[in-house]
């Protein structure tokens, strides 16, 4: 009987280990396709493979989000200030906020959202959405990004999206480095330390 328990225990252990290894390998190989192009808060095109000089911290959000998204954005504002003091923001790393609600989050809506957090309209923190004239095609582009990073989201029909609660750090080639919790669990210092570690 003890041998049966031992065998069962080992089978469970190796099953869990294999599952963990699968997810670690999957994340390590994740990368955003370099040809994906969306538009930013100014209506200008942004292509992920164009700039290969900076790390990117990617936040998925939507402007009607009641809690997790704005909390994360606010904490990223503080993180940005830390990185500016270090002299690396804009030079070695940029922030990208991508809406999961491109129908409502037009460039104008994203600009209002930025202003609400005191985020200047610059080129080192871009807010991306779909082109209103080509929204269905751009939704497919958005899906390429979320699928690459294993970010899940769904609109249950009331406009309040259910979504994964992670932000993502990717390298100069848009390849996955690490992910961090969103909302109140977004630890500004942990993210800062990880970014600086990758830059040094």
Automatic annotation (TrEMBL):
<dbReference type="Pfam" id="PF02630">
    <property type="entry name" value="SCO1-SenC"/>
</dbReference>
<keyword id="KW-0186">Copper</keyword>
<dbReference type="InterPro" id="IPR003782">
    <property type="entry name" value="SCO1/SenC"/>
</dbReference>
<dbReference type="InterPro" id="IPR013766">
    <property type="entry name" value="Thioredoxin_domain"/>
</dbReference>
<dbReference type="InterPro" id="IPR036249">
    <property type="entry name" value="Thioredoxin-like_sf"/>
</dbReference>
<comment type="similarity">
    <text>Belongs to the SCO1/2 family.</text>
</comment>
<feature type="domain" description="Thioredoxin">
    <location>
        <begin position="27"/>
        <end position="200"/>
    </location>
</feature>
<protein>
    <submittedName>
        <fullName>SCO family protein</fullName>
    </submittedName>
</protein>
């Amino acid at each position: 009987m003890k041998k049966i328990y031992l065998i069962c225990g080992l089978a469970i252990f190796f099953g869990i280990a294999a599952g963990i290894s699968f997810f670690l390998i999957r994340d390590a190989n994740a990368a955003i396709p370099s040809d994906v192009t969306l538009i930013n808060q100014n209506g200008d095109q942004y292509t992920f493979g164009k700039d290969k000089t900076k790390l990117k911290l990617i936040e998925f959000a939507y402007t009607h989000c009641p809690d997790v998204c704005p909390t994360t954005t606010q904490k990223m504002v503080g993180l940005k200030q830390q990185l500016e003091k270090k002299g690396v923001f804009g030079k070695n790393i940029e922030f990208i906020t991508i809406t999961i609600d491109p129908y409502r989050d037009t460039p104008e809506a994203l600009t209002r959202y930025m202003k609400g957090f005191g985020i200047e309209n610059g080129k080192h923190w871009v807010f991306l959405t779909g082109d209103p004239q080509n929204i269905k095609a751009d939704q497919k582009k958005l899906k390429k990004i979320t699928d690459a990073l294993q970010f899940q989201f769904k609109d249950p029909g009331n406009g309040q999206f259910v979504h994964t609660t992670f932000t993502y750090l990717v390298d100069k080639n848009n390849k996955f480095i690490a992910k961090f919790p969103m909302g109140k669990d977004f630890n500004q210092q942990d993210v800062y330390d990880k970014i600086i570690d990758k830059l040094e």
